[in-house]
Amino acid sequence: MAKVVKIALAGEGGQGVQSVAEIIAEAANEEGKEAIYIPNFGVEQRGGVSIAFIQISDEPIGSPKFEKGDIVVALSDRAVRRTRQYVGENTVFVYDSSIEGIEKDLPTNAKKILAIPALEVSKKELHPRVFNVLIMGAVLEATGVVTIEQAKKAIEKKLGYKFEKDPSLRELNYKAIDRGASLVREQ
Amino acid sequence: MANKPITGEQRVFMTGNEVIAYAAVMAEADIMYGYPITPQNEIMHYWTRLAPKYGKKFLQTEDELSAGFTTIGGVLAGRKAFTATAGPGNTLMQEPMSMAEMMRIPTLLIVQQRGGPSTATVIYSQQEVTMTTYGGNGEGFRIVYSTSSHQDLYDYVIKGFNTAWKYRFPTFILGDGYQAKMREACVMYDPAERGIELVKPTPYMGAPGTPGVDRKPSHMRNTYNTEEELYEVVMNLAKAYEAIIPEVVEFEELNAFEADTVIIAHGVVSRAAKGAVKELLAEGEKKVGYFRPITLRPLAVNELREIAQRAKKLIIAESSYGQLLKQIKEAIYGTDVEIHTILKPGVGITQEEIVAKYHEVK
């Protein structure tokens, strides 16, 4: 059976996890792979935990949801608690090191747990608005599902109209994706 | 004005709702009537973006009752009209759809199932099977396609309009919130380039000429005075419906007619079921099969009976508390196959769960 890479991204509504998921899935599709991306949402207009499920494979993919992810990323305290259920013995669990009060809630059965200072780095070195792109870099480094180059193309496709007006935004996004990848490499 | 949004074959990566809007344009639908409800909203959104470019129309009504009846109105005027809804909206749609059943009106309703009962979740379920197949005060003389992928959504929306207008029974595309919101690849095409002939709509009312002089009067009726009068009408509907069943029934299977254990699922859950059976076959399990009814109404009764007579066990998996199960039990009545179930109302079912169930019961 073809290997399917399963990714769950979770954060607070507005943190941009759905945009990142969409870009990763589109980049995989552009590379000629099979990809499924499904957002999970409640009835709230704002707030609440927002989860994105992505699966990428060389062959057509079955059910849109999965039990355990290969990589599960949680970007808030509530997201950590909510995504524990998707963590298994083969899961790399990534969370932001600035999240407080979750020491007891971290999964205990993960293959590996990575705390990365994504929020801090995006604030201090880049700009808070590219926090999610930095997370995308980390996910791509951890999974290798699509190349950083392909992801940059997908970002260009999605945000190209903004880059036209302000080319420094392109630079900022590309830096964020590279920096996100390096945060995982350094672990 | 551009003629068509799709020429040749185009691989796209988009949400199911967007795929449906494109398919409706390519099926030469004239007008959509609708009232917003998650998770079908974007069908309306994308349709309203596309429609004006291709000379098509949209009307937002005050509720789903009205959206259903205006769809009927559009059809009576000879337009390919459709609507879309979900959950509690589907409940309200049942009244106009039973009128369409009575008067043989080729409406097309796309349902993106959400959790129930009542408002419940806006996410996903398969809990609108009973309502979509047998809802309203009637006998369920309808055609219901249960889709499982974006490719299905594209193919069956195009096919659904043809089915409705060819057989003149209300037709439904039964999707769900996952299919509505997820993004995956599918290939869009111009049906004409694949040799699919689109059935042309014709008006029920307001045709040219003078009724009784140069054409027959159009006599649309859903009210009857005597029991006997109604009986005759409904029996004629039953006869007409039963006659088309062999042409309309659709299913998909893998090893189902050779297996000891057959896993049955419809819609998006069938992806998990098919994946599970492929996985088990690859592992060397030989006596496992997969069966997916594509039409839930009419159901592939003959094939299900054949399977039930041959197999030892059935595993029925669905995201409801037994709505497909009930129909299958009725279809295989009298056989003594053992039935096992995975019933998860409003919750998705994974391939892993189905594989585990197989090992548990085999």
Give a verbal description of the structure.
Chain A: This is Ketoisovalerate oxidoreductase. Chain A: It comes from Carboxydothermus islandicus. Chain A: GO terms for molecular function: oxidoreductase activity, acting on the aldehyde or oxo group of donors, iron-sulfur protein as acceptor. Chain A: Keywords: Oxidoreductase. The complex is a heterodimer of chains A (about 190) and B (about 350). With about 190 residues, chain A is α/β, with parallel strands linked by helices. Chain A has 6 helices and 6 strands, in the order βαβββαββαααα. Chain A has one domain: 3-Layer(aba) Sandwich (Pyruvate-ferredoxin Oxidoreductase, domain 3), CATH 3.40.920. Chain A has a 6-stranded mixed β-sheet with strand order 2-3-1-4-5-6. The two termini of chain A are about 30 Å apart. With about 350 residues, chain B is of the alpha/beta class. Chain B folds into 2 domains: about 10-195, Rossmann fold (3-Layer(aba) Sandwich), CATH 3.40.50.970; about 250-360, 3-Layer(aba) Sandwich (Rossmann fold). Chain B is about 40% helix and about 20% strand. Chain B is built from 12 helices and 14 strands. In chain B, the strands form 3 sheets. Chain B has a 7-stranded mixed β-sheet, sandwiched between helices. A 5-stranded mixed β-sheet of chain B has the order 9-11-10-13-14, with helices on both faces. In chain B, helix 1 runs parallel beside helix 6 (about 150-165), helix 3 runs parallel beside helix 4 and helix 9 (about 270-280) crosses helix 12. Chain B starts with 8 loop residues before the first strand and ends with a helix. The interface of A and B includes residues 34 and 61 of A. Strand 2 of chain A pairs antiparallel with strand 8 (about 185-190) of chain B, so a sheet runs across the interface.
